[in-house]
Predict the structure.
Amino acid sequence: QKEVEQDPGPLSVPEGAIVSLNCTYSNSAFQYFMWYRQYSRKGPELLMYTYSSGNKEDGRFTAQVDKSSKYISLFIRDSQPSDSATYLCAMSGGSGGYNKLIFGAGTRLAVHP
Amino acid sequence: ETGVTQTPRHLVMGMTNKKSLKCEQHLGHNAMYWYKQSAKKPLELMFVYNFKEQTENNSVPSRFSPECPNSSHLFLHLHTLQPEDSALYLCASKAQGSTDTQYFGPGTRLTVL
């Protein structure tokens, strides 16, 4: 079993839709959870960063962590064509410490006008 | 310049060539990372350096040789690569010991013929 599972998509939605991206993980020691956005031919850029369980909101983006279910989500409201990218979840903590990130494979999102 | 920069952005090399990838971070961080990103696979951690010392080698073949002369610069020396080594090579940096996350460069797209 992979430590982090993420549906690779692609996910295609119309402009203005609410998008839900998800990851599941197996290591209950993870405590820090991140979402990175990666545009084509670019490096990943940090989008959201949360600690432990709960929600965090930043503009149109909401990150949610449910440690009891080992499940994290990223919601994008009023999606725009500029949101078209690959979204990577990542997490750290546990035996790997905070210096190592474990990544999901990424979900490719396409928002069409 | 700010952030994490990588050169070259694109590299095509034959299996007998020797080349080097360069990474520079302008964030005052002291931990630096090399990752390999292949299509539809999670980012694979290759090497970790903390304060110029290598602290992790994730079973990387010896045809990849990292070098970290100081906390701001990281190199990846390549020799006798295989076509399956073709991928996007990403550099990242982080403030070591903190729970801050990693910041990525734009990557070098490597093609091995």
Observations:
- Chain A is about 0% helix and 55% strand.
- The interface with chain B takes residues 2, 4, 6, 8, 32, 34, 36, 41-46, 49, 51, 88, 90, 92, 98-106 of chain A (CB under 8 Å).
- The two ends of chain A are 38 Å apart (CA to CA).
